[in-house]
Design a protein that fits this description.
Layout lengths: L25 E5 L4 H17 L4 E6 L6 H4 L6 E4 L13 H14 L3 E4 L7 H6 L5 E6 L13 E3 L6 H11 L15 H8 L4 H4 L4 E5 L11 H13 L3 E4 L6 H9 L6 E2 L6 H9 L3 E5 L2 H8 L4 E5 L4 H4 L7 E5 L17 H4 L3 H12 L31
Parallel strand pairs: 1-2, 1-4, 2-3, 4-5, 5-6, 7-8, 7-10, 8-9, 10-11, 11-12
Helix pairs in contact: 1-5, 1-11, 6-10, 8-9, 8-14
Amino acid sequence: MEYGQQRFTDERSRPGWKLGDAPLKKLAVLRALQIGDLLCAIPALRALRKALPDVEITLLGLPWSRCLIQRYPEYLNSFLEFPGFPGLPERAFTAQGVAAFLAQAQRAKFDVVVQMHGSGAFVNPLTALLGARMSAGFCAEGEWRPAGDAERFMPYPANVHEVHRHLKLVEFLGIPPDGEELEFPLYERDYADLAATGAVPELSGGDYVCIHPGARYLSRRWGAERFAEAAKGLARDGLQVVITGTAEEAALAEVLSRSLAFPHLNLAGKTSLGAMAALLRGAQLLVSNDTGASHLAAAVQTRSVVVVTGSDAARWAPLNRARHRTVSHRVECQPCEYVICPIGHPCAAGVSPAAVLHAARGLLETPARERSTALKSPPARGAMPTRNAAPLKSL
């Protein structure tokens, strides 16, 4: 049964019953991670909003995620920038930055902070310092949690998909899930940002595939030379190739681009997050590593082939297996936490370009959802509140 189809029938069916009887006015969600991580939490945020329609929801996140307040106005009301914290790798911290963050959070007087950042080893003590009336979230076995809120911390569920992990949390708090689908709303500004790259005239036919060779960890990268072989095969099939990537991945994308002796587009480092999503929305297919781009494709309902190397497919692969395929070569050390593989990257070497092409061609034979024609005409969402669109720096 898909999340969102079950019904709560006992006396504790009031949404959010575990958050107490007093009315909730302000709720904060701590998830200071990257785009793929945030997209996997959107179904949980959707459930929170449906159950608590009048509560002000604040995202405690990394600087890049401030834009999500405008992207998801139905789910998020405000934003507080996370400055980093001891033990967390996402951002270097300073004592002054942490102190200022805690003071801001305490002045906000949240009724509850929901810790969706991880297992709780480092962030549960931080959650308790935010000054909320209550705190809730995950807690791994043996890790600390606030004694007064112990009943609101659920055991960290291992071996489940990231989307389901957070739906389990909101369900634990007494909030009915509302589906497991990812979302990424598109606005006129996103298509304007895409048009500003100069690529739209060349993409107007819609018969293009996006090739995304990057990932934050080198151990998650299949390799530019292998992506090049897959791209060549798709080009022989009559599809236009568009290379995508963040500003940090532009050099890697250039290596891939130089190995392609046919006309193609290289947009790595040239798109905002919204423009990247609009580009994917109009594509026939994405071929990528297991990284933020694959979650973005899932959120805009574009078919994808995801090459899984050092990551955990059971946790991160797109849930819709009809629209998305994973290709991997199983080795004993998967999944790993190495940034760079110390043993020659056998999980990447074991995935052949032929296997990726086979998966891609199989997907391309299946009916696609109606692709966007909004490379030419704006989407129904209309205008997003004014913002400055910067090149995408990290996925």
